[in-house]
């Protein structure tokens, strides 16, 4: 225990700050953009206040969790196209069971069951990828169909119910009005899962296999087991995303929303996670999801045809990446 | 195929390795066997299903899927993918159908649709080829852009009304001599062109080279970015043609008409033996892959409820892809 302390003492706070800034340039830039966007939002819609912030937080929660799930998988060198149908399946199972077995206490068991289902889906994805040696994108494309099929089997049409305590978790604010509950839920979930993970041996292994599989293997990382774990953790978080869908809409929707996959990948990349793996964290993607949502909200306030919002999201996604890639190319050439 | 069967004669058919090599070198043979088996199963399960009407219906639907899968085959050969095809195809059909009451009629609409598709392909190509952004992201992003613009166009043309032009309908759904689907007039030349492009032209070989080893291709003097920009323009134009055929086939125009075929188009290319990692595959396999998927989907929609259909379809994609990866890994 004394060793880390000794190392810590040698670096001054200024050094640490510089290192943090250097490591998180992209995320900090994004945060700056977010701040500018908030000011802009207040400018186009003077009524944008704390209650609107809660609305934004509630609608962002499933997307933000999906982005975190995708981030864990992408930085381990994978990609999961099946996230949206996993969310649909979990949300349908939760809504159906909660309708059939009403009761606030039973709902706790149902939530635990749904999270376990998330673990199972992730394990199947991961094991299939490792065993068949088929590229992640093909396997998860196929399981996208499979989970969506099961979701339809559970529920033929949108329906079901959600327990009152689950709904109250994500809607509204906690005590003081500027703390949206959905935001707190997001922070708690990420803090409980991601922060210990990133500091653990497993977290390091995830980055290692994402960064250089062969080097990780030669350094003694159990590559296949770590790969499966990345999908298990990702799908576990996606299960939270599915539950938050049920909580915020009170129903389960069996047809997966394909834009969730698109936006989760977009947010991951905008959030500074390299699609090649090994680089980034979950903080950037969360900010990116909020930025994307805020842009859409702003366009609604400005009475722009919401379809241009779609256009803007696509163009921002491509534009930012082109600029980012261009800067990187210039830097590597210099 | 005839050359293939001649070349594999005189081998020891009892050995698993022979079959493995066959699957690796001539994927068309096992794929065709699979297709025939599938048709036999369909006929056995529901006697009387396989008839003229069934065949022409299957071929018409498979032709559309095969063109979309052609976009995936070409881009996957270079290690890319084109997920904007669904939106581009829907947009093209929709624009043509809504242009019937605009100046110039649907022919002018056709020009606009092709121009728009080429523009989308150009942006895709610039993003992937010059700025080296991941193709998944660029094409997804452009897909959103196309969908957004198509929606705006939809709102503006609500009053003017729309209708699928008779000519598009004739090509899309019509039959010549009650047997031959008219859309083969469009599909066959495209298929021949793609196969010749990949087998006989320098451009085609360069696509394989880039997918196989981009660095080696660059060091050999290939200007990758030019190849890639042209590639994505071709892909978008193919998607636009597929959209027109589908619009004629279903006699409906919508901004999301073709989007359900995007994932199957990737699946068809994968089943046909094209590797998503690049450098391996071809279009003839993809065509058989599209036929297999169409027969299978049609069959499953008769015998199984929709949810199970998706489960079975997904499982088959994993199984086939796993078989390929096993075969190519142990070579």
Can you walk through the features of this model?
The complex is a heterodimer of chains A (334) and B (331). By secondary structure, chain A is mainly α. Chain A has helices at residues 2-10, 13-23, 25-44, 50-75, 83-100, 104-132, 136-154, 164-170, 181-199, 201-211, 213-218, 223-249, 258-270, 283-301, 306-333. Chain B is mainly α and 331 residues long. Chain B contains 15 helices and two strands. Chain B has helices at 2-7, 16-25, 28-45, 52-77, 85-98, 105-130, 135-156, 166-173, 184-200, 202-212, 214-219, 224-250, 262-271, 283-303, 306-329; strands spanning 175-176, 180-181. The longest helix of chain B is centred in the C-terminal third of the chain and has 27 residues, at 224-250. The radius of gyration of chain B is 20 Å and the shape is globular. The relative contact order of chain B is 0.18. Classes of the chains: A mainly alpha (334), B mainly alpha (331). Chains A and B meet through α6, α7, α13 and α15 of A and α7, α13 and α15 of B.
Q: What is shown here, in short?
A:
The complex is a heterodimer of chains A (334) and B (331). Chain A is mostly helical and 334 residues long. Helices cover 78% and strands 0% of the residues of chain A.
Largest sheet of chain B: 2 strands, antiparallel
Gyration radius of chain B (Cα, Å) is 20 Å
SS-based class of chain A: mainly alpha
Shape of chain B: globular
The main sheet of chain A comes to: none
Order of helices and strands of chain A: HHHHHHHHHHHHHHH
Q: How are the elements arranged and paired?
A:
The complex is a heterodimer of chains A (334) and B (331).
Chain A (H helix, E strand, L loop, with lengths): L1 H9 L2 H11 L1 H20 L5 H26 L7 H18 L3 H29 L3 H19 L9 H7 L10 H19 L1 H11 L1 H6 L4 H27 L8 H13 L12 H19 L4 H28 L1
Chain B lengths: L1 H6 L8 H10 L2 H18 L6 H26 L7 H14 L6 H26 L4 H22 L9 H8 L1 E2 L3 E2 L2 H17 L1 H11 L1 H6 L4 H27 L11 H10 L11 H21 L2 H24 L2
Antiparallel strand pairs in B: 1-2
Helix pairs in contact in B: 3-14, 4-9, 4-10, 4-12, 4-13, 4-14, 5-6, 5-7, 5-12, 6-7, 6-12, 8-12, 9-10, 13-14, 14-15
